[in-house]
Amino acid sequence: MSNEEIRDLVQLVIESGVAEIEVQRGENRVRIRRTLGWRHEVTVPGSMMAPGATPMGDAIVQNSTGPSSAGATSGTVGNETIVKSPIVGTYYDAPKPGDPPFVKVGDVVEPGHVLCIIESMKLMNEIESETAGTVVAKLMENGRAVEYGEALFAIRPR
Question: Which 8-state DSSP code applies to residue 147?
């Protein structure tokens, strides 16, 4: 599948307003998922794209075969820093059920501030902010499975 075909699929998702589309041609598979209506994520399995995330218009194209560098957990879209999951697991926004969330939209965070927990293989991994700023969006639902590189929060740096 060529980059032009992928761009056409991204445009189709934008124009149609669908939440997610997955297309498979032979061994090539592309999944495009819309998140919160302000950006689009395209996952391209295999070796079709360079490792890591690459901006493509208002979409993010991501190779799903693995990380480009260990520990890379944030990227920038517009003025916001996107905090991404460094591991595969289950997202939790509070230390335990019934407790208030670590952060809410509008909260001011500093580097090292715990944003959430991702449970992976029975281990609770605290995900911390790498930048100082204001949380402008929570992009994940509590208790949902997350993949490596999936967007968790948008933070507007100070």
Answer: -
